[in-house]
Amino acid sequence: MQISSEIKTYDHQPIIDLVDIVKERPEDHRVVDLSSLSGTDAEKIARGRLVASRIKAPERLLLIRLILPVAAILYFSLSPVSPLIVPLYGIIGACFFFMLYHLYLYRHPATRPGTQRKIILSANQVDIMVAHLSWMFDPAIPAPMMLLVAVAAIANGFRQGGAAFRAILKLTAVLTPLVILARVQITGVHLSALPFVLLNAFFLIYAYFLIVRMDRLQAAADARTTRLELNNYKLKQLGMALQKSEARYRNLFDDSSVAMVLIEDNMLISLVNEKFLTLTGYTKSDLYNTKKLSDLIYEDDLQRIRRFHAKRRRMGGTTPTEYECKMVDRENNIRHVIIRFNITHWHERIMATIEDITSRKQAKSALQTSIKRLRQTASRLARSQKQYRNLFENTGTATILVEKNMRISMANTKFSELTGFSKKELTGKKRLSEFIERRNLIRIRRFIGKQKEKGLPLPTEYECLMVDRQRNQKHVVMKIYTPPEQESSIVSFFDITKRKKAEAALQDAHERLRILAVMDELTQVANRRQFNDKLASEWQRLLRDGRPLSLIMCDVDCFKAYNDTYGHQNGDRCLRAIADTLSRSVKRSVDLVARYGGEEFAIIMPNTTLSGALRVAETARSAVANLNIPNRASSAEPFITLSLGAASIVPARSVSVDDLIKDADNALYAAKTSGRNQVVGGLTGDNKKGDQRHIRRIP
Q1: What's the whole-number mean pLDDT along residues 100-106?
Q2: What is the band of 619 on the pLDDT scale with cuts at 50, 70, 90?
Q3: Selected residue with higher pLDDT from 71 and 584
Q4: d(CA 694, CA 673)
């Protein structure tokens, strides 16, 4: 707040009553929340990492388990007495089976939960079974193999712990009486073996309690170790959190965008950031424990703040924590600032932030000046707006003002006449996109999207179709102009419907002229001019590609006599029928049927060999013959027929297109002199020395 009251000066009074501020704003700022480190997540992490586990050595355990069958084999092999019940080779086979089963269990992957436990239990059971079978087959009295039962049980118990040992003892309690009964039936009762059995039982029971005791001690040790490691982990996390908190607040203090200072109760400066040094022009050595914050406040403002505090103290009001005043830097320059005090009740020092508002003050002064100018400008704008509206209305073209959302905010009379809508119906209710034909609108949007993707500037002129109120389509040119820093665009429309109709009529005339220039008027196939252009272009193309070019020359047999007999009108109809038949005989779009002159036709066939050209020529000959157009004046057949000559050549520099025409013409001449109504193929180029092939087809 800014204070301007003039009251008598009170010397030796602090500018802020810190005790009052602390009482009024008892805020609780926690640097580190210690309770966040004792949650279940940290405990789970520590226990997951530090939980005690038994050391596993699968290869060593497998070796020990394989020693049991091997020891049994050696014992029975070296024993002078034969084994009980089964022969020696049976014991050896069983031992090898148990060894292979252990290897299978060792290599078997534990892919499902609980599979590993089942494998361990199965291995324990195999060990106990091997030991009991060795004891049962042992012929000695007392049987030393009884020790193998104790060794297998105790070894697996020490390996797996008390829980597994209990399962082993249960299996042993079942198998041992069975083995004893089997041996009594075979060897009889021997009291000398009883102490040996009791001794083994004592070893098993003693080992059981020993293993249980070891498990309890191990569990207690693991629990203590886990707790210690967990506490150590929490302490490390706490230290890291404290370091991060200190670094975070240090960075916030140093990198703050405003000047910050830490002061003692007596206003003595103890810590500043770089912004404060830049603001005041002092160095840290000039400020720390040397300067007070009040030393940097302009004297008049300092006296004013003291008077204000004295007045508030007498009235019993609260002490503010924000002050607007002037500050004097090292070069005695005056800066307008806002000082804000942040009081923490558990901290001995006070944090103050200083915001430089000098530019704001200057801007405020400039704003007052600009307001006056704006008022003057507003009056000019009011006058120019009227002129602008008159110009907009009388521009001579259909013009609208379009906002960013394509909505029309203003329209002149010309646009209203163009669309059939009134200004009231247009302004604020219609969008520009509603007047553009749908396909044209999609095309314009796609074009604009591609221009934006390529980073190219957008055009300001578009030619499109406009739809008016009666759904009539009009050709228009739409010009768009967006003034700099404006939110709306000026769009003008020029009706070019009449011009488009004239252009369409002119285009139709040009197309008709083009067709007349390249088409034979009578037969509606290509004329001699198009024939020459097509043959020359295909010659150049196939010269580059090295592919063959074929030409078929066709002549109507005895056509002059047909005209003399049936008249020229029937002759014209006959030529049209022949031209239509030849066009249907050619299947490819690249082939060209042309009227070469009079009753003579030609077919250009690119990428076609002589054999292919002969097939097409024969098809054309048969199709014309099948028309059955009567011609009693013909010396060949009593109907209209064709004679055809075909030639093929691979264009090269050593030959020309005239050679191809000449060869096809010679083949045609040969077909006519050989009796007409037939196809003759001529050889060209390097094959000219060969004979011509004549193919005659007479229905």
Answers
A1: 73
A2: very high
A3: 584
A4: 12
Q: Nearest 5 degrees, angle CA 688-CA 693-CA 699?
A: 155
**pLDDT tens per residue across span 415-449:** 888 888 988 888 888 888 888 888 988 998 898 88
Could you report the per-residue pLDDT of 665-678, keeping only the tens digit for each?
Answer: 999 999 999 989 99
Across the range 359-375, mean pLDDT stands at 82
SS3 track for 150-200: HHHHHHHHHHHCHHHHHHHHHHHHHHHHHHHHHHHHHHCCCCCHHHHHHHH
List the single range of 54-68, 94-108, 502-516 with lowest mean pLDDT: 54-68
**Cβ-based burial of 65 (10 A; exposed 0-12, middle 13-18, buried ≥19):** buried
Q: What is the CATH number of domain 395-501?
A: 3.30.450.20
Closest CA to 598 of 688, 528, 676: 528
Measure the CA–CA gap between 249 and 261, rounded to whole angstroms: 14
> Taking the C-alpha atoms of 287, 291, 293 and 298 in order, what is their torsion angle to the nearest 10 degrees?
-110
DSSP string, 407-424: BEEEE-HHHHHHHS--HH
Determine the straight-line distance between the first and last CA of the chain, rounded to whole angstroms: 119
How many CA within 13 A on the CB side of residue 172? 28
Sequential DSSP letters for 600-643? EEEEEEET--HHHHHHHHHHHHHHHHTT--B-TT-SS-SB--EE
* HEC readout, 13-73: CCCCCHHHHHHHCCCCCCCCCHHHHCCHHHHHHHHHHHCCCCCCCHHHHHHHHHHHHHHHH
* 18-25+258-356 CATH pick, 3.30.450.20, 3.90.550.10, 3.30.1360.120, 3.40.50.300: 3.30.450.20
Element spanning 657, H or E: helix 657-673
**The two three-digit tokens of residue 323, written as one number:** 């002050």
The model's confidence at residue 640, banded by pLDDT at 50, 70 and 90, is very high
HEC assignment per residue over 315-380: HCCCCCCEEEEEEECCCCCEEEEEEEEECCCCCCCEEEEEEECHHHHHHHHHHHHHHHHHHHHHHH
Q: Give the distance, in angstroms, between the CA of residue 226 and the centroid of all CA atoms in the same chain.
A: 46
Residue ranges per domain, the chain? 18-25+258-356, 58-228, 395-501, 519-696
Secondary element (H or E) of residue 645: strand 642-649
Distance CA 321, CA 340 (A): 6
| β-strand pairing of 642-649 with 678-682 | parallel
Does 692 score more than 70 pLDDT? no
**What is the model's pTM?**
0.36
List C-alpha distances in Å: 428 to 400, 432, 436, 650, 655.
11, 11, 17, 72, 76
Q: Which residues contact 563 (CB under 8 A, 6 or more apart)?
A: 570, 571
Note the pLDDT tens digit of each residue in 548-578: 999 999 999 999 999 999 999 999 999 999 9
The pLDDT value recorded for residue 347 is: 58
Distance, in Å, from the CA atom of 659 to the CA atom of 539, rounded to the nearest integer, reads 12
Architecture of domain 519-696: 2-Layer Sandwich (3.30)
**Low-confidence winner among 56-60, 266-270, 592-596 (lowest mean pLDDT):** 56-60
Q: Evaluate whether 480 touches 489 at the Cβ level (below 8 Å).
A: yes
pLDDT for res 60? 65
452 pLDDT exceeds 80? yes
